[in-house]
Amino acid sequence: MSRPLRAEIRLSSLRHNLQRVRAAAPHSQIMTAIKANAYGHGMARVAHALHEADAFAVASIEEAIHLCESGISRPVVLLEGIFSAEELVLVQAYGLQLAVHCVEQVEWLESANVPKPLVVWLKIDTGMHRLGIAPQQARAMYERLHDCTAVGEIRFMTHFACADDPDNPLTARQQQQFADCLDGVAGQRSLANSAGILAHAGSHADWVRPGIMLYGASPLQGETAAGLGLQPVMTLKSRLIAVRQLSQGDSVGYGAQWVCPEAMPVGVVAGGYGDGYPRHAKEGTPVLVNGQRVPLIGRVSMDMITVDLRGMHASAGDEVVLWGQGLPAEEVAASAGTIAYELFCHVTARVPFVEV
Ligand SMILES: *Cc1c(COP(=O)(O)O)cnc(C)c1O
User: What is the pTM of this model?
Assistant: First the structure.
């Protein structure tokens, strides 16, 4: 038998979560965020499973080309637009849509010789203060794009900073800014990420842009994915490769950090930070052994973790879930001081992916 660690990808859950988006935002088109290798789930497989989505959103032209070459025919949107004027040749060749978030990108379009006008998304900064045109300049930029022969249809988008916290007033202010600065301007609009879709129904507009909820993790603080009707897509599974009977006072792992308070069984699981399991996962981080929660003990190693098996019967070969079905990735992430997005993106290339 080979090393037992693998990432199972449940495509039926991915489709279920897409239906969940449709149910939450029935009047909007859906642009699925599949950047960063579909949050670590495998971009081509995810795009094919989500073929009913209305568009796909990525972060770079390389991601877009990979997607187009995998046979995707739905529109592909570059969320950060182009990074240089030269990329317009590829944008044209692959028929991509692009965000325009700064005046330089407008200038590149103005001086481009583009035979077939492009669909562009003018990105407006309503409060995230990362990318986007200031609201006061939105109209001027719109006019310039409107006069530009390279540009066909102009659409509008903005991005929320705090939609995951339903009580944060910034989301409503961002919606208001967006509406005000585009008052009277025709064109499709998009505001909501996953958190916006589930917590701010008034933000759905023409297009929603779900990411994390498609992969089955909760986008909202204080809400579980299961409670929101989402199913985990990735389950990082492994097995116990040893069960050790240790004595009181024995230490476990690097730094000899965990010291057995009594004679006890300790399980060794194939899976460590070399696979993407977070090295900063705290002692007590939950791990499922035979479907039962046990606490992580000792430091996370490159290839292994160790768990406290007191109170259960387990032996080498028994099944372990590091996150996914039965153990929300958000919970493991919180215990490691991070978010599920990062856990998903960090699964390393040596982990085999299996579609189930
Ligand atoms: C990644 C991204 C999304 C998706 O965000 P989630 O929080 O994963 O739903 C939406 N819009 C933009 C601009 C993004 O970059």
Answer: 0.96
User: Can you give the residue ranges of every domain in the chain?
Assistant: 11-216, 234-355
Question: What confidence tens digit (pLDDT) does each residue in 59-100 have?
Answer: 999 999 999 999 999 999 999 999 999 999 999 999 999 999
Nearest ligand 1 atom, CA 163 = 7
Please give the number of the atom of ligand 1 that sits closest to the Cα of 194.
9
Best residue for ligand 1 mutational test, from 63, 79, 190, 223 (most atoms within 8 Å of Cβ): 79
| Domain 234-355 classification at class level | mainly beta
Query: pLDDT (tens digit, 9 = 90+) per residue, 94-114?
Result: 999 999 999 999 999 999 988
Ligand 1 midpoint to CA 12 (Å): 22
CATH architecture entry for 11-216: Alpha-Beta Barrel (3.20)
Q: 67 with 93: CB under 8 angstroms?
A: no
Cα gap 2→79, rounded to integer Å = 40
Tokens of 223: 């809400």
Residue 254 is a catalytic residue = yes
